[in-house]
Amino acid sequence: MIEFMFALAIGILFGIGVFQLLRRDLIKAAIGFAILFSAINLFFLAAGAFEGEAPPYLSNVLAGRPTSDPLVQALILTAIVVSFGSFSLVLGIVNIISQRYDTVDSNDVTQLKH
Question: Domains, the chain, ranges and CATH?
């Protein structure tokens, strides 16, 4: 049952994120970018979930007991840092576009065409 809930939450978040990315409003597209990264982080968590009885740093102390996989935790932490940096970059670009062209609608930014 928990696997179904993870899959449903990942699918909904991924769908909302892609839908928001395709919007004309750049702020909504940036929010969709953040939602999409949340779906990817949740996917990493669901794909690497291990029903261990102990955290990975206690594997030597608790010999014989299954531990959680530390690789997934490291990947999620790295993905969170990368998504935060990417989201900051996207927000900076949206800020520059809104100041330079006085709009956040991608259809109104016509000066980029040659």
Answer: 2-101 (1.10.287.3510)
- The whole-angstrom separation of Cα 65 and Cα 67 is 6
Q: Each residue of 40-82: pLDDT tens digit? A: 998 888 877 666 666 666 655 556 666 667 788 888 899 999 9
Cα torsion 3, 9, 14, 15: sign: positive
The SS3 of residue 25 is: strand
Asked whether the predicted pLDDT for residue 27 surpasses 60, the reply is yes
How many Cα atoms sit within 13 Å of 45 on the Cβ side?
A: 17
